[in-house]
Design brief:
Layout: E1 2-10, H1 16-32, E2 36-43, E3 54-60, H2 63-71, H3 73-85, E4 86-95
Antiparallel strand pairs: 1-3, 1-4, 2-3
Helix pairs in contact: 1-3
Length: about 100
């Protein structure tokens, strides 16, 4: 299994409507992309000093499935909403 993690920092001038568009798009990806085994995302709970506002965790059976996800039109469409409000991001993948 491959776990893909993305941490997002939003621009200071982002709007609740922009975040809602991102969340709606993320919620649609599990149905749109069958290679996704598990998909969770959410706002920072505020329990740490994290500089990030939002996290996305996706699990795939293989690196090939993760590559299909990355190139999928539905993922790219959501990515356009993310880029519009993103100030910074960090990501990583690991096998488990």
């Amino acid at each position: 299994m491959l776990r893909h993690i993305v941490l997002l920092k939003f621009k200071e001038d982002h709007t609740p409507e922009q975040v809602a568009a991102v969340v709606d798009g993320l919620n649609s990806l599990s149905e749109a992309i069958p290679q996704i085994v598990s998909y969770t995302h959410g706002s920072d709970a505020g329990n740490t000093n994290s500089p990030y506002d939002y996290a996305i965790v996706a699990d795939f059976a293989s690196a090939e499935d993760a590559a299909i996800y990355q190139d999928h039109p539905a993922h790219k469409a959501v990515g356009a909403h993310v880029v519009a409000i993103m100030a910074d991001a960090a990501q990583m993948q690991f096998h488990y």
